[in-house]
Design a protein that fits this description.
Layout: E1 3-4, H1 15-27, H2 37-57, E2 64-67, H3 70-84, E3 90-94, H4 99-112, E4 115-119, H5 129-135, E5 140-144, H6 158-166, E6 172-176, E7 193-197, E8 208-212, H7 227-230, H8 238-257, H9 259-276, E9 278-281, E10 288-292, H10 297-306, E11 309-310, H11 326-330, E12 338-342, H12 349-366
Parallel strand pairs: 1-11, 3-4, 3-5, 5-6, 6-7
Antiparallel strand pairs: 2-8, 7-8, 9-10, 10-12
Helix pairs in contact: 1-8, 2-8, 3-4, 5-6, 9-12
Length: 367
């Protein structure tokens, strides 16, 4: 049996999305900026998708910028804002952001002279509005805090943080909602920018978007033509952008449809894991938990892989680098013995039982 318990890393493309995409590929190949009929038809499909996405998120159509995913969207939001407003040099983020956010701040700090405040999560793994309020300064340009942490699943009150930032003149708020989209509700009314990817919600890799409110000024990072309101040059990936609306609609429908199933799977895994391992965190996102065992993570991952079980020990973006796990370190946890288990509505109780059985056998053998 093969068991995929790494949904936080990526997900399989939804069959309905894949079928639509394949049909579009067969017929529509023209450049969406071309002025002949076939090009205009593709442009119109992309713009219909943009409008549908905007409605789902409660924003304006011209506030949706298509990107290659959340990493690009995060870079555009953070660096694009800073380069457009060089007079304010203080930034606030958390120590446990995704690497695309963390490394953007590091680059701004090390290469461009910005001062960055890195907030530490509380004992429950959260970054709070009070923490942000205390860190704000007169020269603070940007606050960037993720909605859901991708290592432990802690859910931050980004709406509360956004309200605090909104009261601070000249300061903008950005949030990476990649892990929360289709799982956790969010009101973007006071959020200035939000980033997400399609491949975390059974969409295409290389597809995502940045929500940028109309009053937020950014400097483009990719110079080119008129595409994406002149903020992202290059030929549009129009067909991927077109199916993003369907991807999001299905994900949001499935949030309610599979809620009880996912909660039952979470509780079953939690009960089983509590008997054989240390559950580090399981009180955030229902589809993600982090555990520790006496066995080194690398050994355990290989042993589980031999049984056809796929899990991870850290964010996939840093899996091949010898980088510390900033989230687990901040919480005082030993990253060398921790693994991350994440799942979605495609997983079953049978898979959960197989995983628990194999994990116990491995622990009995090696511990």
């Amino acid at each position: 049996m093969k068991v995929y318990f790494d949904a936080v890393s990526t997900t399989a493309v939804n069959p309905e999305v894949l079928e639509t995409y394949k049909k579009l590929l067969d017929e529509y190949y023209c450049n969406s900026d071309a002025l002949y009929d076939d090009g205009v038809a593709i442009y119109d499909m992309q713009e219909k998708s943009r409008n549908l996405i905007a409605k789902m998120l409660g924003v304006r159509k011209d506030e949706i910028i298509f990107t290659s995913g959340a990493s690009e969207a995060n870079s555009l939001a953070i660096k694009g804002l800073c380069f457009a407003h060089p007079e304010r040099k203080h930034l606030i983020t958390s120590i446990y952001e995704h690497s695309s956010v963390h490394n953007s701040f590091r680059q701004l700090e090390e290469d461009f002279g910005y001062k960055v405040t890195y907030l530490m999560p509380d004992e429950d793994g959260h970054i709070t509005a009070d923490m942000v309020a205390k860190a704000l300064r007169s020269d603070t340009l940007l606050v960037s805090i993720m909605q859901v942490n991708n290592e432990i699943g802690a859910i931050n009150d980004v709406e509360g943080i956004a309200r605090i930032v909104k009261k601070h003149p000249g300061t903008y708020f950005h949030t990476d909602i990649t892990q929360g989209l289709g799982k956790v509700d969010i009101d973007l009314k006071d959020v200035d920018m939000a980033s997400f990817s399609a491949h975390k919600i059974h969409g295409l890799k290389g597809s995502g978007a940045l929500v940028k409110k109309q009053f937020v000024e950014l400097l483009p990072l990719i110079s080119g033509g008129q595409q994406e309101f002149s903020l992202r040059g290059g030929t549009s990936n129009a067909l991927a952008n077109t199916v993003l609306a369907k991807t999001m609609r299905i994900a949001m429908e499935n949030k309610e449809k599979y809620h009880d199933q996912l909660k039952a799977l979470h509780d079953h895994l939690y009960e089983g894991l509590s008997r054989i391992a240390t559950v580090n965190y399981a009180k955030g996102l229902d589809t993600l938990m982090n555990i520790s065992t006496p066995i080194p993570s690398e050994v355990l991952l290989n042993a589980l892989n031999d049984k056809g079980i796929m899990v991870s020990s850290k964010s996939t973006c840093g899996s091949k680098k010898n980088e510390e796990n900033r989230t687990l370190k901040a919480l005082g946890l030993d990253e060398d013995h921790a693994i991350r288990i994440s799942f979605d509505y495609t997983n079953t109780m049978e898979e959960a039982d197989y995983f628990l059985t194999q994990l116990k056998e491995i622990l009995d053998k090696y511990a």
